[in-house]
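We treat protein structure as text, and this decision shapes the records that our systems exchange. Because each token names a local backbone shape, the row as a whole describes the fold. An entry from our holdings is shown next, in its original layout:
>
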Amino acid sequence: QEECQNYIRVLLVGGNHLFTCGTNAFTPICTNRTLSNLTEIHDQISGMARCPYSPQHNSTALLTSSGELYAATAMDFPGRDPAIYRSLGALPPLRTAQYNSKWLNEPNFVSSYDIGNFTYFFFRENAVEHDCGKTVFSRAARVCKNDIGGKFVLEDTWTTFMKARLNCSRPGEIPFYYNELQSTFFLPELDLIYGIFTTNVNSIAASAVCVFNLSAVTQAFNGPFKYQENSRSAWLPYPNPNPNFQCGTMDQGLYVNLTERNLQDAQKFFLMHEVIQPVIPIPYFMEDNSRFSHVVVDVVQGRDMLFHIIYLATDYGTIKKVLGPMNQTSSSCLLEEIELLPKSQREPIRSLQILHSQSVLFVGLQEHVVKVPLKRCLFYKTYSACIGSQDPYCGWDMVMKKCTTLEESLSMSQWEQSITVCPMRNLTVDGHFGTWSQWKPCSHTDGASVGSCLCRTRVCDSPAPQCGGWLCEGPTMEIANCSRNGGWTPWTSWSPCSTTCGIGFQVRQRSCSNPTPRHGGRVCVGQNREERRVIFFLLYCNEHLLCPPHVFWTGWGPWERCTAQCGGGIQARRRTCENGPDCPGCSVEYQPCNTNACPELKKTTPWTPWTPVNISDNGGHYEQRFRYTCKARLPDPNLLEVGRQRIEMRYCSSDGTSGCLTDG
């Protein structure tokens, strides 16, 4: 999401217009605005081939006086198609050969300049001519501004593209190379190009400043080419068919208006054999364990000569002010290191620009811009400090008795300056705190009373600041475990009345938490709860509302008679609701009673009369009679019902001998 914003990558002034391009969340766009009113947009065009898609891709661009835009950037979304591309203006669009690593091999573009007949581009790339492993070389490339491309061959492609290696190294039997170009600065009045070179990010950090004369650049481009016949061949020098090529064009014929370069040569020959050498064999300035990111240069008129002041942005957020060598044999001097922000707030420098007309630096940071004056002579309060600073901007005015610039002095004859040696450095010492002392009891005032704490201190003496060094940042005392007396919070509002009629009470509360007592502090004195009795008709709560009669149950009456004497029955008791019909609960309550088993009762019926049943052949007959016996566990014998039947039978003979004449 961080990259899906609109990062401004092209910002160019052309006449009274400002041409801008931004990544626009990986959909680059460009606009033309009026300088006097930046909100006024004249036109908007696609940013493809003019601005990178991603803010992580390096690019550079320039706008010529005739309106052509030269951009070195990635042409596609993933950044696999880098190109040097011309658009806008009256000339046809041209680009470097597509997907040809011999032209451009994963380049990181740094800067571009419009110089004479050529447009120059500075970048670093994987060295295609390096046969042993992978390494990065820094390059200078150029194209003719009047190039219109080829005909039949190299159509829409540069025919004048050439590139040469930039050499920035520490000389020796085995030179130490600073291979990766990071930033350049061009001094057109002196035809000098300052460059920052560093080691690879996977190597030991080291940086150097090398300076190249435009004549050395031209010499390399006028020399032989480096050419490889095929992928199995070695890179060998090849004579330059146009050794002093200055973008001349054909006057007539099939290739009229095309440049003098042979198109077949332009396809093969673009890498120069000779390396662009710096002005002096050793770098102007070197520093180990550090990486520089940006460079600008100011040319200062001293009392007796011109001085070159180099400003270098470091990767940790400071600016080194360096005095360039005064001749071929002298070395550069580190004059001072400018702290933009306190050490705890340092951040990487995003851009560095110099405005010579106002003698100021503009330093771009993540969220703001810092303006730094170049002339800071008022910092030197004494003669020795002024002269000893070896600052070309400053000298001692013998009349005004203060350190001034040459412009501020009334006369050069009374303005003294002596720049002969590098200034004494490391006199400025930034302060650092010593270790904390042991925790000790200390007192503090808490309201009207005195409490106790634990305190410890430290002193800015390891080392103490000297000669304008930074003071220590941070507290000199730490306090902990302070006793704190408790304090009451404000009373809450009175609560609603506890009753809705009659006499009730209200409550309000507070707590001992404003603050809470701690570390032996005094607790709050007093009550945390208050009540007040209220007669509502006096305080207008339910005014004149009398409480209704109290509705209640009477006590339970005696248990009524059990519904059974044995075998289990129920009995009830009752109560009544006084002063209303709406008492909660039941008016009758039941319980079991006489749950003991009833005794067993037995009842037998009398015998029935005898009745004949059968008559036998001999004249005799049978008679029978009945009776019933019932038994059960009941409280009342009358509740018995008839049970099983008992039968008796007798035989009666015809002669009457069997006794059937009676009922017994």
Remarks:
- The chain has a mean pLDDT of 87.
- The two ends are 125 Å apart (CA to CA).
- DSSP finds four helices and 43 strands in the chain.
- The first strand starts at residue 8 and ends at 14.
